[in-house]
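Quick question, first post here. What does this chain look like in 3D?
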Amino acid sequence: MLFAFPSVLDFGLEPAAQVLTRGFSDYFVPIASSPAILLGLARADSVDLTASRVAVLDGKPVAAALIARRGWTARLAGMAVVPEARQSGVGKALMAQLLAEAQGRSERAMVLEVIEQNAPAVRLYEGCGFRKIRRLTGHAGRPAAEADAAALEEIDARELAAFVGAHGLPDLPWQVSAETLAHATPPAAAFRLGDSALLLGNPAADVVGLRALVTHRDRRGRGGARALLRAAMARFPGKEWRAPAIFPEEMGGAFTAAGLARTPLSQWQMTRALA
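> Answer (accepted):
Ran it through. Tokens below.
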């Protein structure tokens, strides 16, 4: 089979978003895309729309992949194959193209996250030379507000990002890295309590997404993250709270201590060195 791989920008944002939406329509968590969403990813996650690709076979788009780039590292930010083209080898062909192009740009590594329960995708990436770094887990719940929020201090998201850069775990996933968090803007809001800080997606929403949680490296294990979460829940009571499966598994204790339960889906954070 002979594929063509135009860039998302050349193929067009609207038709590329349609390919992604079709490919993710029956995913573990269905994901709808749009030109606005793609442009948002370009701003916040460094998705390069000229390096991102649509796979075309016999004139028909059958898959699409988003590539983010920072320094010497590329990230597969998402790849979707339309249902009728699965098991055709398009995923392997598209990955080979993306890896070859990353090597041609002199990038030194490609990273990705893949749902652990998506066995075919895990096999594909392992077959392409990716290795697992760690498991990423999610947590959710509607805990009762049982803390005092008076000491909670709102801070600039850039300050939170600098704090994550100085005290976050090594090799954090792209979405919770300091570089990504520095792009957060309202309605996202960052808060600090003592030696811990967090970022919320939109505290005014009925479902509040947790986007970052960090404690000073010398103060971990003393309950600071739990206290911060509880204070945030008291500041914004009556909400459902969700930490998506982008947090390293070793951080899960803080979420469970704050009354959140682990969610069923998890992810593998993976990397591949590029020659």
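The first strand starts at residue 3 and ends at 4.
The two ends are 27 Å apart (CA to CA).
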